[in-house]
Amino acid sequence: MSLHSLVLCSDNNIMRTLRRVLSDLEISLEHCAEADMAVRRLTRRKFEAVIVDCDDEDKATEVLTSLRSAPRNKRAIAVAIIGNAKEVSSAFRLGAHFVLHKPITLDRARGSFRAARALMKCERRQNARVTVQIPVSLIGDGKKHQAIVTSDLGEGGMAIKFSRWTKPTGPVRARFELPGVNHVVECPIEIAWEGAGLEAGIRFVGLSREHRDQLRMWLNRCSPDLEPPDPPVRCKLTDLSPGGCYLRTETPFPMRTRVVLIVRTSKSAIYADAVVRIMHPDLGMGLEFVRDTDQAREQVEHLLQSLNRAKGTLPDVEVEPEGLQDGEIRDSRSTDAPLDSLLDLFHRSADRPSEDFQAKLSKLRNEKQGAVSAASA
Question: N or C: which end of the chain has fewer CB within 10 A?
Fold first, then answer.
């Protein structure tokens, strides 16, 4: 078992359920009955998940707060065990990605932890780095900006070193060749961090499906210990707009998760990048399509055209997580674009109870169906 979890809980019944579910999913479990012990372990060991029983709110707050300040574990997936629906918003404010409602059942726990495990693997892959030195060209305004050299390379970005550094301004792309496979990667980038010395970090933005797959295969060859990703989660598409969609699933991913939406046809698979804007445990999630590059916009248009050809029957789709979003999520809504009612509902309802959101979503759906009927009459 290479995925590790830390559990703060004093309920023997809950612990029995967690041990069984996590063992089935090949996630090891380290148990702590007291908050101070859990905090000490967070400073000393690396965990992919931290599970906290929120029965004692002060202890839960102490551990979840310590989790985000622990350098080794600030990217860990946090799971909160709560007693009633009123505690959901509090758990998310404390930094929980998933919530489990008491009494915990095996089926519900398995569903939540399948989604959590997929995200745990994503975060591990995103953080994995291969030490390698390859030349990279930074390109701005269609011209070569400067040449640099990597010190390591990963799925989400790279560390670079240089003899002289001019921080790029405006849109910049990185171009480099993967060693040994004769594949050139070119994509938009952001400067993630700048070191005190002659080093900086680059984050990939809008990496194409082809480049992402080639980079992932290269990393798997160089790091054979990396676990393969879990299969995509199958979801029911219930609502669709130009800006996003709502998916029914018992295993939704948390807000701020970057995902790939996959629609399979008889001839091919269509992909589009999205970010989870709203999540309701055991019910579903709302996605906002990513449109920050020309390629991303083309992907979304292709996806919408395919779905519109379904003639009113929204198909099942698959969702594959890519990791948690760093920094602020870009708002794709344009001030001069027509109002996207579905996307607007996501933005206005992130902190509202799921029952309130579902009622508003149902009303919006009925209004759209009424408008279509009137137009065809």
Answer: C
Domain of residue 265, CATH code: 2.40.30
pLDDT confidence tier of residue 374, bands split at 50, 70 and 90: very low
Task: List pLDDT tens digits, range 64-81.
Answer: 999 988 888 988 999 999
Residue 195: the pLDDT is 80
Of 26 and 163, the structure prediction assigns the larger pLDDT to 26
Domain co-membership, 72 together with 164: no
Residues 276 and 360 in one domain: yes
**How confident is the prediction for the chain on average, in pLDDT?**
85
Count Cβ atoms below 10 Å from residue 18 Cβ, excluding itself: 25
Assigned domain for 283 exists: yes
**pLDDT given at position 375:** 38
34 and 51 inside one domain? yes
- Give the total residue count for the chain: 377
The reply to whether 375 falls in a domain is: no
Q: Is residue 197 located within the same domain as residue 261? A: no
89 in any annotated domain: yes
Check whether residue 266 and residue 199 sit in a common domain: no
Last residue of a domain, one of 127, 145, 168: 127
Range of the domain at 69: 3-127
Q: Do 151 and 123 share a structural domain? A: no
pLDDT tens sequence across 186-221: 988 888 888 877 888 888 887 888 888 899 889 888
